[in-house]
C-alpha cells in the first residue's frame, strides 16, 4: 500500500512502522491515523510478521493529535477525528501481532495514548511522557482510558490533572513501559525484545494476546473458566501439537508460519 505519513519495512518476521511527520512533531492527524489503521489491519490479515515495532522519525515519538486540525474543524469534524483514533486503538488491540512502542523524546497526549495502548514499550532513558491537555482546557479524556489501565489510578490522575511530564524511569516504575535503556541502545534493545517474540508461533501469540485482554477485567474464576476454554482449544492447533512434540523430542519446533 502507498504510504504518505508512515514508513514501513519488514525484517526477520518483525514489522517496523515509523510515524513520519517530523516537521509536525509526528502529530496524529486524521489522515495519519487512517493510514496507520489500514496498515495495521493489513499486517494483521497478511500475517507476514509476528510482531510490530512502532516508532517515530525525528526528535520525538509523538506530540499527540494535530491541534490545528482540531481548532479548524467543526464539532462533527472533531468527532470524526477522535472516532478515527478509536479505530486505530482498536486495530492495535485486535490484530494478532503484539505492538511494541519504541519511545524517544516525548510522548504526549494521544502520543502517550499510543504508548499506553501498545502491548509493550521500550523507552530511551531521556524519554518523557505527559497528558497535558488540562493546560489548554482540553482534558486528555481519551488518553486517560489506556493510561489508567497501565498505571495506578492516583498516578494517572496526577498526570491528567497536572499535565506534568513523567520521566522514563518513573514510567518504568509505574508500569507504562517495560524497559528503559540509553538512547544509543534504544533501537537495538527494542529489536532484541521483538526478536524474542518473533521466534514463536504467531498462532499461539495471537490466541494469547486476545485472551489476555478478554480476561483482564473479568472476576477471577470467570477469567479462569474462560482461559480454561481457550487453552483447551489452543492444544488442538497444529503449532501447539508441533511445539509439544518438539519439547518431548528435545528439538526445536517448526512453526507453520516460519
TrEMBL record:
Belongs to the enoyl-CoA hydratase/isomerase family. This is Enoyl-CoA hydratase domain-containing protein 3, mitochondrial. It comes from Thermoanaerobacter kivui. Keywords: Fatty acid metabolism, Lipid metabolism, Lyase, Transit peptide. Coiled coil: none annotated. InterPro entries: ClpP/crotonase-like_dom_sf, Enoyl-CoA_hydra/iso, Enoyl-CoA_hydra_C, Mitochondrial_ECH-domain. The keyword Lyase applies. It comes from the Bacteria. The keyword Transit peptide applies. May play a role in fatty acid biosynthesis and insulin sensitivity. GO terms for molecular function: hydro-lyase activity. GO terms for biological process: fatty acid metabolic process.
